[in-house]
Specification:
Elements lengths: L2 H79 L6 H82 L7 H11 L4 E5 L2 E2 L8 H8 L12 E4 L4
Parallel strand pairs: 1-3
Antiparallel strand pairs: 1-2
Helix pairs in contact: 1-2
Length: about 240
């Protein structure tokens, strides 16, 4: 195989690998955006959950405060009734009821304080979760712009590589073209492999002396181990 043919096949191999690399980068763009979107969705879900917990905690505080006010109003009524008692027994019963209500009110006040502390913590969680949502959205927007810019460049590069590939394929020797065209349809950048020191650099298997001789005669040689079209990278 002449130096010119070797150079052509090496160029084809490099172009095919570059095209595959560009297309893989192009395909990773939407995957990157989808990953960002998943993070935004998760962050938004956590924010909504924190908001729901905060709303529930506030409703609990409101309910307990209303309960406390009702208890205090009832206690005032009982205090008033003390002055109108007709018997010592009734007076004592009212005192016991007032004491019980005051004890219940004290417990309720403690619960309200605990729930108000919970509300404060949840407000902090909502603030943090909001910041996370805003940050993940910003990151997604920034990366979306990068992906769009990169995609434009990659598309242009692929178009240029396709032109280079077509021009280089025209220079292939006729005896090699059939095998190349057949293999490249399905294997793309894996269609070719260089041979160095008698080793196929596609599968790293030793090729036969007869195959080495065929390469020297510019013949089409396919690796029996990996099925790639071979070209020499050194003097055989």
């Amino acid at each position: 195989m002449s130096i010119a043919t070797t150079d052509i096949m090496a160029s084809l191999h490099q172009i095919l690998k570059s095209m595959t690399g560009h297309r893989e980068k192009l395909a990773r763009g939407p995957i990157r955006i989808a990953a960002h979107q998943a993070r935004v969705t998760e962050a938004t879900s956590q924010l909504e959950a924190a908001r729901e917990k905060l709303q529930s905690a506030r409703m609990t505080v409101d309910g307990k405060q209303l309960q406390l006010k009702t208890s205090e109003a009832k206690n005032l009524e009982l205090q008033t009734k003390l002055n109108t008692c007709n018997s010592n027994r009734e007076y004592q019963a009212l005192l016991e009821q007032i004491a019980a209500d005051q004890m219940s009110g004290s417990v309720l006040e403690d619960e309200i304080l605990e729930w108000m502390e919970t509300v404060d913590k949840l407000v902090g969680l909502v603030t943090d979760a909001t910041a996370v949502v805003e940050n993940t959205k910003r990151q997604m927007q920034e990366d979306s712009l990068r992906v769009k810019e990169e995609s434009g460049i990659l598309h242009s590069d692929i178009i240029q590589l396709e032109k280079e590939l077509t021009d280089t394929e025209k220079r292939l020797p006729e005896e090699i073209k059939p095998d190349y065209q057949r293999i490249v349809k399905t294997r793309k950048e894996d269609s070719l492999a260089s041979v160095r020191d008698g080793i196929c650099e596609g599968c790293f298997q030793q090729i036969t002396p007869n195959m080495i001789a065929q390469l020297a005669l510019k013949e089409s040689v396919i690796c029996t181990s990996c099925g790639r079209l071979l070209y020499p990278m050194d003097s055989q």
